[in-house]
Specification:
2 domains; about 30% helix; FAD-dependent oxidoreductase; FAD/NAD(P)-binding domain; about 375 residues; Reg_chr_condens; 11 helices; alpha/beta; five-stranded parallel beta sheet; NADH-Q_oxidoreductase
Length: about 375
């Protein structure tokens, strides 16, 4: 009997568990370690923040999925590895032994180089922490809508733009018109335009949308400090000298890896992500695989985006089966360009692929909604 251990309930592992449920492999014992019972689907998260989806619609329940795959499920947080003894260390369980290990734990926004950010900002990941803070802020707004508030997002990539638009749209739906202007929205980005890795069309269009909706865009601004004032408000200091006070700050910047990964002895890149080959296999330890944001494809580096985690699910499953059977592995080849559908929070979306863009259109949001619901249906049926 061989032990296959999966750390994390990300998109790739959810797909792999579904495949193991449908195509059981004799002679293996599967263990899933995840610090959440319900894992968020990144494609639906902005729609959830905008009020289009329920919590259940935007999350995959890992418990029935693990049961169907006949996997032991530990709701716990992995904190380290012993690569000599092939063990996973957890916060609240004894060490868990493995023959084959797969890691799909996502990433977190990098905050270490900005004093105060790790203490006072709300990181976009882990998602449960983001949602708890969002619900708390939403409750405060509804309890005293007449009070003036200010909300800031640091990071002008697709995640930061979509989060800001979704939150604003949802609060506008909940508040009476006379109270909507009591909330100010700010977005800080270090480049000269938002969505730097997307088409110029998408960047220009979404900038215009944000400006029309009264969202303050602070471009070419690097946040250098975040500190709490005696008034309990947060002060953002920028390298340029710009200073703004806010009530909440969402941090949606470049991704970072948990410290325990680089401390484990696995080969990592300069940001601490696990380096893998075309088989999604660690380049330093052949019995360890990684996928999603936590992995860096050595031969085909790609942005940290949910679309790649989804596409890696099936080849990851196939390679886990093959290595358990001591057979040759298959290669995963990511697409050169990928389509991004960015919701505006009000039932429309902008499409971006390579140099091209389209929208905002309700038809694009309807298409995105259909894609996301179809993906989630495979776990709910």
């Amino acid at each position: 009997m061989k032990d296959l251990v999966l750390i994390g309930g990300g998109h790739s592992h959810a797909i792999a568990l579904r495949e193991f449920a449908m195509n059981p492999l004799p002679g293996i014992r599967i263990t899933l370690i995840s610090d959440v019972l319900q894992t968020p689907y990144s494609g639906m998260l902005p729609g959830y923040l905008a009020g289009f989806y329920t919590f259940e619609e935007a999350h995959i329940d890992l418990r029935p999925l693990a049961n169907l795959a006949q996997a032991e499920f530990y709701c716990d947080r992995a904190i380290g590895l012993d690569l000599q003894q092939n063990q996973v260390f957890c916060a609240n369980h004894p060490p868990i032994r493995f023959d084959i290990l797969s890691i799909d734990i996502g990433s977190t926004p990098a905050t270490l180089n900005v004093p105060g950010a790790a203490t006072y900002a709300i990181p976009a990941k882990p998602v449960p922490q983001l949602l708890a803070s969002w619900h708390k802020f939403q409750e405060k707004v509804l309890q005293s809508p007449q009070q003036s508030r200010s909300l800031a997002t640091v990071g002008g990539g697709a995640g930061g733009v979509e989060l800001t638009l979704s939150i604003q749209a949802h609060l506008n739906k909940l508040l009476a018109p006379k109270y909507r202007k009591n909330i100010e929205y700010h977005l800080f980005h270090r480049s000269s335009h938002i969505l730097s890795s997307h088409s110029r069309y998408a960047a220009r269009t979404l900038s215009q949308i944000m400006e029309r909706r009264g969202i303050y865009l602070h471009l070419n601004q690097s946040v250098t400090r975040l500190e709490k004032q005696p008034s309990e408000r947060l002060k953002l200091d920028c390298e340029s000298g710009l200073t703004i006070e806010c009530d909440e700050v969402f941090w949606v910047t470049q991704a970072a890896a948990p410290d325990w990964i680089s401390g484990s002895g696995l080969s990592t890149d300069n940001r601490g992500f696990i380096q893998v080959n075309d088989h999604l296999q660690s380049i330093s330890h052949s019995n360890i695989f990684a996928s999603g944001d936590i992995a860096t494809l050595l031969n085909n580096p790609r942005p940290k985006a949910g679309v790649f985690a989804v596409r890696q699910g099936k080849p990851l499953f196939e390679n886990l089966c093959l290595i358990l059977q001591e057979k040759p592995l298959i290669s995963y080849h990511p697409q050169q360009q990928f389509l991004t559908l960015i919701g505006t929070g009000n039932g429309k979306a902008v499409a971006s692929r390579g140099r091209f863009g389209l929208g905002p259109l309700r038809l694009i949001w309807t298409w995105k909604d259909w894609i996301d619901r179809r993906f989630m249906d495979q776990f709910n049926s």
